[in-house]
Specification:
Helices cover about 75% and strands about 0% of the residues. By secondary structure, the protein is mostly helical.
């Protein structure tokens, strides 16, 4: 039986639209960070390092790592949703497409413009796909799963991101001012975009 009056964020079609636009923007934002060449966020330092090591594209490694992370969901008793599976597949594809289509910026001002645009884009994309309520991303699920084991969200996220950042840097991933800007700005920007990208909740209909 369904619970009456459970808040949801719009109809299923509108939620699907937000989910897939959000994932496309997220992947494009990763591509912009890479092309800026000023440093990427911790997980993408890891993906980039693996790309340097193997010759596979960053997008391929985003997909592979996302799938492998979901294996760790099993002992953590996390359940994927449509948004989770879509995240695993689509973010990497859009990241690779953006890297392929966009030439690497040469002028420093252009590189900063790309990097700052990327951070804002990723924050807005996060507000869209989380607001769709169709399942967390695989890396977010790992964090919340560790939280269920007793770690605080802050500690779980910090430990995970320090680990992937360090390993990615050792493998040849790009750590720079863009990494610092992303780390400092993504939280406040995501907090700003969450209510902007999420329509007012309304009571869910009872299932038939």
């Amino acid at each position: 039986m369904s619970e009456p009056s459970v808040p949801i964020s719009g109809s299923l079609p509108s939620r699907l639209v937000r989910l897939y636009i959000g994932l496309a923007l997220y992947g494009a934002g990763i591509g912009l960070q890479v092309e800026a060449g000023l440093g990427v966020d911790p997980w993408d330092v890891f993906h980039q390092g693996l790309s340097v090591l193997t010759g596979w594209s960053i997008g391929v490694w985003i997909i592979v790592v996302g799938a492998l992370v979901m294996v760790f969901w099993i002992p953590l008793r996390q359940r994927p949703g449509l948004g989770t599976i879509s995240n695993v597949v689509l973010v990497g594809l859009f990241a690779d497409a953006t890297i392929w289509l966009l030439p690497t910026a040469g002028h420093l001002a252009a590189r900063w413009a790309l990097m700052l645009t990327a951070v804002v884009m990723v924050a807005a994309a996060t507000g869209l796909y989380i607001g769709a309520d169709l399942g967390p991303g695989p890396r977010d699920g790992l964090m919340t799963g560790l939280h269920r084991l007793g770690l605080s969200i802050r500690l779980a996220r910090t430990l995970i991101e320090i680990a992937v950042l360090a390993i990615g840097w050792l493998l040849g991933g790009t750590v720079g001012i863009g990494t610092v800007v992303f780390a400092l700005a993504i939280g406040p920007l995501t907090q700003f975009f969450m209510p902007v990208m999420r329509p007012k909740d309304r009571p869910a209909r009872l299932s038939r």
